[in-house]
Design goal:
Blueprint: H1 26-57, H2 64-77, H3 80-86, H4 94-113, H5 122-146, H6 152-158, H7 162-187, H8 204-243
Length: 244
């Protein structure tokens, strides 16, 4: 799900009540800064690749192939964020972080990579653009927060642009999974049929449908949580400015 995921920053927590732990030490902070700078640069590479491919082709079709490799590298690189939370250097929920990161990794590899017929779908470009803008802002936010020099424009973008980017990404994800269904059913991709030695069956087609259904309760919760965070973070500053 293309939501703002747990970051790699000691400041703030987008997933729930922060744990009352000391912040990371100097070594952990230096590592997190390097990690976030690399991830910001990686998603910038993806953004530049998209723009360059569009200007070259003069069309938005087949742009996925221009950024396929860096998208896989840097989206998979987000798995480290789960470890950051697990080891306590980032005060966020391991479960929620794992869910959000794994949902994107799943869509990247188990859907878009595995079902090549959907790679030309406009829906893929929809979620890729949403992810790219979101991640550039998110990792920049964490980098500046770690350095204790957070520009207001970055904070504003972090807690405002998701209003459009989140629904945009979710729409692209759902449409991509839906487009993959006929091909998954036809090829029995990743499905395990009976009989087999383990007496176990798995229908990937049904699993994808269940994944789509899971968006119904989860999307509103995450979206309204971010709206609440926006009011909490930006609202207090706006009230402070008015009082001055």
């Amino acid at each position: 799900m293309a939501s703002p995921t747990c970051g790699s920053s000691r400041s703030g927590n987008d997933h729930g009540a922060p744990k009352r732990k000391r912040g990371p030490g100097a070594l952990a902070t230096a590592y997190l800064v390097i990690y976030n700078v690399i991830m910001t640069a990686g998603w910038l590479v993806i953004a530049v690749g998209l723009v360059r491919a569009y200007l070259t082709k003069g069309s938005h079709h087949r742009l996925y192939y221009a950024i396929e490799k860096p998208l896989k590298y840097f989206q998979t690189g987000a798995l480290l964020e789960i470890l950051h939370c697990a080891f306590g250097i980032v005060p966020s929920s391991v479960v929620l972080t794992a869910f959000q990161v794994m949902s994107r990794v799943f869509l990247t590899w188990a859907v878009t990579h595995s079902v090549r017929e959907v790679q030309n779908e406009d829906s893929v470009l929809l979620f890729v653009v949403a992810w790219t803008v979101t991640e550039i802002i998110r990792y920049s936010f964490y980098t500046f927060s770690l350095l204790n020099h957070l520009p207001y424009i970055v904070k504003w973008a972090r807690y405002t642009l998701f209003i459009v980017l989140y629904p945009m990404g979710v729409t692209g994800e759902l449409l991509t999974i839906y487009a993959a269904l006929p091909f998954v059913r036809k090829t029995s991709l990743y499905s395990i049929m009976l009989p087999n030695r383990y007496n176990f069956s798995f229908d990937y087609y049904t699993f994808l449908i269940l994944v789509m259904i899971s968006y119904i309760p989860l999307f509103p919760q995450l979206y309204f949580h971010m709206l609440h965070q926006r009011k909490k973070v930006l609202g207090s500053q706006e009230e402070l400015k008015k009082s001055e």
